[in-house]
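[recover] target loaded
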């Protein structure tokens, strides 16, 4: 498995070997030993695993969890194709406001490790796109926050050839600057401490 650090500090994309033959293919999108070698620790204890199914054009996010408690994620796409985007929302981080993107699909079986305090979103590029999440914490509605994916300061690479389909919550979400002004964004040092304690 190949690990590549993304432009946001602490986030990685993992690209596993895919073994193909006349029957189909076999792949392991998560391998603990490679994660430990890359980030120096095992994956966080998994508190919840979730799946979402989306049709082409669905935009989910930018989502993040109030910190504390915060939630780290390990994400992959076992069906379809998604443009996955990670945004550093940790105030005080050397990469605050920066983002990176990865195309996740079944063929390459890439996965993304997203540390606590980051924003996460994806755009479904095909119908019946399934995204799988391993989470360090369980979903608590009151702790789940959002930033608009159309924040002009972020200028995210949302494809122009799709008609975005969004939830009501994501449609009215604030910009990064508005969330910062309201004191809603995670603190960098606190996020690191909480992540280390997972």
């Amino acid at each position: 498995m190949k690990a590549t650090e993304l432009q946001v500090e602490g986030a990685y994309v993992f690209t596993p070997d895919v073994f193909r033959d006349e029957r189909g293919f076999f792949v392991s999108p998560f391998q603990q030993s490679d994660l430990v070698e890359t980030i120096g620790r095992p994956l966080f204890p998994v508190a919840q695993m979730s799946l979402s199914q989306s049709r082409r054009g669905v935009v989910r996010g930018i989502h993040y969890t109030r910190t504390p408690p915060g939630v780290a994620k390990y994400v992959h796409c076992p069906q379809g194709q998604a443009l996955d985007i990670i945004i550093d929302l940790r105030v005080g981080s050397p990469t605050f406001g920066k983002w990176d993107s990865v195309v996740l699909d079944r063929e390459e079986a890439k996965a993304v490790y997203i540390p606590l305090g980051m924003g996460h979103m994806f755009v479904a590029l095909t119908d019946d796109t399934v995204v799988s999440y391993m989470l360090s914490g369980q979903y608590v509605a009151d702790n789940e926050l959002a930033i608009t994916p159309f924040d002009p300061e972020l200028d995210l690479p949302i494809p122009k050839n799709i008609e975005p389909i969004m939830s009501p919550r994501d449609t009215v979400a604030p910009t990064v600057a508005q969330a910062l002004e309201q004191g809603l964004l995670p603190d960098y040092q606190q996020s690191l401490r909480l992540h280390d304690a997972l």
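[recover] notes: The mean pLDDT is 97.
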